[in-house]
Amino acid sequence: MNPPPVTELEIVPLDVHDRDAFDEWHGVYLAAEQACGELVGAPWQLEEVRAMMQDTGSRAWSAGFSGRVDGEVVSVGWLRTPMLDNLDRAEVAVHTAPAHARRGYGAAMLAHVERVAVERGRTVLVGGVAWPYDLGPEGAGSPGRELARRAGYDLALGDVKRMLRLPVPAGLLEDLAAEAAAHHPGYELRSFVGPVPEELVAGWARLDSLVETEAPTGELAIEPASADPAVVREQEALLAAQGRTSYHAVALAPDGEVVAFSHVVATVHEPGRAYQWGTLVDRRARGRRLGLAVKVENLRLLQAEAPDVTTVSTYNAETNTHMIAVNERLGFEPVARLGEFQMCTSGPSSRGPEGRARSSSRATDEGGRDRRIEAP
């Protein structure tokens, strides 16, 4: 039997307040993510995505799309456009139900999402594709990678997903903390659960806004995010609505300025799992082992406050040797890869004075990147 022609795909906007439609949309997304392999994908759970899609904050506009054949949703799409920064950028995602893969539905959905992005004035389209670690940095043979290539996207940055099994032995954490402390006398470490304290939020927002540009960027066209503390409070409200809990550690310079932070997030929808989001040390405070210090401090907090958490996952650019070395000392092991693909639809991008992206090897975690853009 020949597969049905792709012209049969009817694409309609997703009503994020229609529970049945949203559940069906998420079901296709989740099945496609799970088809990548148990440790390969990192899918958002139903209520996490619902809360994000219904969020009306100032940070970004997002939309979903359902592709139906004979009334059944077989492919889904997602689009996010930042509204406070990176105003030429759009994050795109498509997922196809495994039973309906390789019939052209993913390509048709991707083309539709791209058209909407361009209509919204976006010229830099980005998306992430996960594949098994053993496929190597290029991911040759991965369905999502092949679709991205055929659609004209280039691999702009390669990341590695690493996982840490908890608990980390207390003795190891003590030794690493003592080693790091010798390099930053006069600096104070603080840790806390939930919202950032008011006296720290401005400094925390400043560092968090720089995570994706201080990390290796490869060929990605990206600029720093908004550093407005009000945006942090919006994000915290969204996290609460999603059932997520934040665990933070910060380093304060002798003058009280926030100069390093590490952020881990757990969710009620995935008992036992947590995700390492951003870790960053201010340029002016580097060389003092503060990255190691805040990560150790945060793991101590996580293990004390959430002893049911048994794994922490993170993503680092393949070239981010400094943070990879720190993570390996803590026990993180590679389990999968994530390719960040990009297509610039017209003209110079926002990559700097000569249209070129910066690339660095700063000691940062990029685990805050939530672009799970599979395309099987």
Structure description:
The chain is an alpha+beta fold and 376 residues long. The chain has 2 domains: 6-157, Gcn5-related N-acetyltransferase (GNAT) (Aminopeptidase, 3-Layer(aba) Sandwich), CATH 3.40.630; 163-339 and 347-366, 3-Layer(aba) Sandwich (Aminopeptidase), CATH 3.40.630.30. 30% of the residues lie in helices and 29% in strands. It has 10 helices and 13 strands. The chain has helices at residues 19-35, 46-54, 105-119, 143-150, 170-181, 201-208, 211-214, 229-242, 290-305, 321-330; strands spanning 10-13, 60-69, 72-82, 89-96, 124-132, 154-165, 188-193, 244-252, 258-267, 273-281, 311-317, 333-344, 365-366. Strands 1, 2, 3, 4, 5, 6, 7, 8, 9, 10, 11, 12 and 13 form a 13-stranded mixed sheet that branches. Strand 3 (72-82) and strand 4 (89-96) form a beta hairpin. Helix 2 packs antiparallel against helix 8 (229-242) and helix 5 (170-181) packs antiparallel against helix 9 (290-305). The longest helix is centred in the first third of the chain and has 17 residues, at 19-35. It is globular and about 65 Å long. The two termini are 21 Å apart. Residues 347-363 and 368-376 have low confidence and may be disordered.
